[in-house]
Write a structure and sequence with these properties.
By secondary structure, this protein is of the alpha/beta class. The chain is 42% helix and 13% strand. The chain has 16 helices and 13 strands. The radius of gyration is 23 Å and the shape is globular.
Length: 477
């Protein structure tokens, strides 16, 4: 138990000291930093002002409805939406994706076993939606350029298809799919086409205005029926908001849920949530109002300058290469045989740069992922210096060695048949068997853990990490 006489805000600050920094441009995953402290302050004040407001009933809190409609209108202008377009504020990209899939399913009640066609690079949120809503995900391999294969996706559409998905860009590799071809095939089949622009939706329009080459992907493309775009990414709003836009009200209507089948109030929801704080919406509205179109153009110029500098710096490292030339703000780095990507990640983290390792998948090698923000630009020279040092250190250290016997054991695991005791043993070997209550300390270096997970099948990775999360989430008494 904690000391009831202690100041909870002092304890909060002490707890937060162990977290990754959300400002400063050095955390290249999970957070998106404008580098504008005054704007951040506006967002925080707006969130606090509306923390007690409830978005469940827009007639009770009309200011929330006004802000939502204005935020959706802002996005419609960015994304070339027709006058018929409508939208909804959600809690994040995953909820936007879930609603896009649920709405497509419920629009076709006559299809007993609905399917959706997605590329192998589509965000995992679509697999989550498939799991939750009973929509089979038909996964189509991508081409050598890591973009969706439009012809193969068109060939995968059948009478049970309710949705076809494209990414702008895909998270893992940062490239925009051939949306025009994919949407055209979907339209020809009479099927909805959703563009997952959760990452790119608020920055790619400004990239185009800056004269950068951006493949067509917005509502200007015939056949695109819905788009998801996160405001808590490159709109630089506080965490907890995304937008799901539909070309028409008829396309959005199946997303809504209503129930009068009980003696209480008639439940009416536009999202998966019922009660929802007005804070995130107010924060997003305030930040977008404060930055404005010119501000976003300037922030886009900064982040793309950072991307270009990082890309040029990677080219100076013979052991590194780009997985694909980025269309947006995401950079995926591959390594040659002299360099272990997981060790490179550890070396960068040790130098104060948080980057994200991506495990190998379907014949693709493991990579290092960077999500750049506007606030990263002033620090790019420091990052490139750290990158050079990290490459040298990782080459000197050599690849992570996994005992051949252990490697064979991991490769042979059947996740479906593992017992809790076997999970505990595997977690212990991976160094993930710390204490309970959220105080589990990860190893200082994660390369051995990632190397072990990299040998496992995707199903085994999922099972091991679920077991790890289960052991983290235990009550503190």
């Amino acid at each position: 138990m904690t000391d009831p006489t202690s100041d909870p805000l002092d304890r909060l600050r002490a707890l937060q000291a162990a977290d990754l920094p959300v400002h400063g441009g050095r955390t290249l995953a999970y957070v998106y930093d404008s580098g504008l402290p005054d704007v951040d302050a506006i967002g925080r004040e707006a969130v606090a002002a509306y923390a007690g407001s409830n978005g469940l009933d827009p007639t009770a809190f009309p200011s929330l409805l006004r802000m939502e409609n204005e935020l959706v209108g802002y996005a419609c202008t960015l994304l070339d939406a027709p006058a018929t377009a409508v939208g909804t504020v959600t809690s994040g990209g995953t909820e936007s994706v879930l609603l896009a899939v649920q709405g497509a399913r419920d629009a076709c009640p006559e299809i007993a076993r609905p399917r959706m066609v997605i590329a192998s690079t589509a965000h995992a949120a679509f697999h989550k939606a498939a799991h939750y809503f009973g929509v089979e995900a038909v996964v189509v391999p991508v081409g050598a350029d890591f973009r969706a294969d439009a012809a193969a996706m068109a060939a995968a559409i059948d009478r049970s298809t309710v949705l076809v998905v494209a990414s702008a860009p895909s998270y893992a590799h940062g490239v925009v799919d051939p949306v025009a071809e994919i949407a055209g095939a979907a339209a020809a089949a009479g099927v909805r086409c959703h563009v997952d622009a959760c990452i790119g939706g608020w920055v790619l329009p400004f990239a185009a205005r800056l004269g950068r080459p951006v493949p067509p992907w917005t509502f200007a493309v015939d056949g695109v029926t819905s788009i998801s775009v996160d405001t808590h990414k490159y709109a630089y709003a506080p965490k907890g908001t995304s937008l799901l836009l539909h070309r028409t009200t008829a396309l959005r209507r199946p997303q809504y849920f209503a129930s009068a089948a009980w003696p209480g109030y008639t439940m009416l929801n536009s999202t998966l949530q019922s009660t929802k704080s007005g804070g995130p919406l107010a924060g997003a509205w305030a930040v977008t109002q404060a930055i404005g179109p010119d501000g976003y153009a300037a922030l886009a110029a900064q982040v793309f300058e950072a991307v270009d500098l990082v890309v040029a710096g990677i080219a100076q490292q013979p052991a590194l290469r780009l997985v694909a030339r980025p269309d947006s703000t995401l950079v995926a780095i591959a390594t040659d045989d002299s360099l272990d990507p997981f060790t490179l990640t550890d070396e960068l983290v040790a130098r104060g740069w948080y980057v994200q390792p991506q495990l190998s998948f379907a014949g693709l090698p493991a990579t290092v992922h960077l999500s750049l923000s506007a606030a990263t630009l002033p620090h790019v020279p420091d990052f490139l210096t750290a990158l050079g040092e990290a490459v040298a250190a990782a080459v000197a250290a050599g690849p992570v060695a996994v005992d051949p016997g252990v490697a064979g054991f991991v490769r042979s695991l059947d996740a479906a048949s593992l017992t809790d005791e076997e999970f505990d043993g595997l977690l212990a070997f991976a160094g993930l068997d710390g204490g309970a209550g959220g105080d589990t300390a990860l190893p200082d270096r994660m390369a051995p853990v990632n190397a072990l997970l990299d040998l496992a099948s995707p199903a085994t990775r999922e099972a091991v990490l679920v077991a790890f999360l289960d052991r983290l989430a235990r009550p503190t008494r």
